[in-house]
Amino acid sequence: MGIGPFELGQPRVHLGRFPTPLHRADDLGDLLGTADLWIKRDDLTGFSWGGNKVRPAEFLVADAMANGASELIVSGGPSSNFAAIIAVAGRVHGMRVHQVCYGSEPDRPFAALAAARQSGAAVTFTGSADRSTMDAVGKELAAEHARQGRVAYTIPRGGASDVGALGFVHAALELGDQLDAAGIDRATIVMPVGSGGSASGLVAGTAVAGRRWVTVGASVSRPPDETEAGILDKAVRCAALTGVALSPDRAANHLRVHDARGAGFGMADPEEARLADAVSQSTGLLVDATYNAKAMRWLATVDHLEPPVIYWHTGGALGAIDRLVLTSPEQTSS
Ligand SMILES: Cc1ncc(COP(=O)(O)O)c(C=O)c1O
C-alpha cells in the first residue's frame, strides 16, 4: 500500500472511513443536562479499534513512509489506544512497530497492549513509573536502529506532533461541511483531552476553515493551564504546516480547557462510572473510563455552554472493554 494523495500539503495514508457521522443526540443531552446536543462519532472511524487516534495515524504513517522509515517507534502506556492503532497501521503498511511503555509488564491485562502485541509490535518497558522515560528510551532505540543502518520514525505519546495534529485539521474541515449542511454556524465543541494533539489540530483547523467554533477541552491527565499552553503552541505550528499563519492570541480565542481529572488518570470515580453505565444502557454508546466518562461527567456538571454543543466522542473501545472486564461481578467477587 502506498502513500495516498497529499492533503493539507502533507502525505496521508487512508486508514479510516470519513466523514464520521454527526447527528443530534437528544437522549445523551437529556442524561447530561445539555440542550441542543450533537455528537461527532469518532468512535466510528472505521479502522481497527477506531477512535480519534486513527486521524493522526494517517498523517504520521505517511510521514514515516515519506522519510524512508521501515520501523515505527511509538511511546505509549499499556492502555494506549494510540499505540495500539499505530501497531495495526504499521503492520498493514509493512512496517515494524516498537512500543515503548513506562513501568514494567503490568500484572493485569490491558486490551490495548494485547491489541498492539497481536499486531506483532515489540514492547519494551522502561522500568520506571515516570512517563517521560518513554521519550528517552524511544530516542535510544532510534539511535540503535540508525547504527544498524535502519531508519526508524519516532512518534511521541498520543501522536501529539505537529504532523499528527494535521489529522484533526482534516477533521475540522470535515465538520465544517457537516455543519454547513445542517445550517449551523457557531458551535461549542466538547472533547476529552489527554496529550492535546487532537485539540491542537481542531483549533488549528478552526482557523484554517475560517470558523467561529470554540473547542472546550476536558483535561483528563494534566492540569488545565499546562494542557492549554501545549495545545496552543502546537496549534500555531500545525497551522503553519498548512501555510496558515495563526497567532497564539487568535488560537486562544478558539480554546477553553477545564479540569476533568477527577480521581486521576485512568481511574473512574463512582459518579463517572455511574454516568458511563447510564449512557451505555440508554444510548448504546461505548464509554471508556479514561477519556469519555470523564469528559461526559464534566459536561454534566456544567451549567451552561453556548449551544449548539457538539460532543466529540473519541472512541476508546479498548478502554471500554477494560472497564467491563475489571468491574464485572466475576472479577470483583473473586
Ligand atoms: C479514546 C481517546 N479519547 C481521547 C484521547 C485524547 O486525545 P489527545 O491525546 O489527542 O488529547 C485519547 C488519547 O489517546 C483517546 O485514546
List keywords for this structure.
Rossmann fold, alpha/beta, six-stranded mixed β-sheet, 334 residues, 46% helix, binds pyridoxal-5'-phosphate
Description:
- The protein is an alpha/beta fold and 334 residues long.
- The chain has 2 domains: 22-46 and 161-333, Rossmann fold; 54-159, Rossmann fold (3-Layer(aba) Sandwich), CATH 3.40.50.
- The protein is built from 13 helices and 10 strands.
- The strands form 2 sheets. Strands 1-2-10-7-8-9 form a 6-stranded mixed β-sheet, with helices on both faces. Strands 5-4-3-6 form a 4-stranded parallel β-sheet, sandwiched between helices.
- α3 packs parallel to α4 (111-118) and α10 crosses α11 (292-301).
- The longest helix has 21 residues, at 162-182.
- The protein is globular and about 60 Å long.
- The protein binds pyridoxal-5'-phosphate.
- Pyridoxal-5'-phosphate (PLP) binds at residues 51-53, 81-82, 158, 160, 192-199, 288, 291, 314-316.
Oligomeric state of the chains in view: single chain
Beta strand count = 10
- CATH fold label of the largest domain: Rossmann fold
Distance between the termini: 47 Å
**What is the H/E order?**
EHEHEHEHEHEHEHEHHEHHEHH
Bound molecules: pyridoxal-5'-phosphate
Query: What share of the residues does DSSP label as strand, in percent?
Result: 5-15%
Largest sheet: 6 strands, mixed
Counting structural domains, the number is 2
Provide the residue-averaged pLDDT. 95
Radius of gyration: 19 Å
**Architecture (CATH level 2) name of the largest domain:** 3-Layer(aba) Sandwich
Helix and strand content put the structural class at: alpha/beta
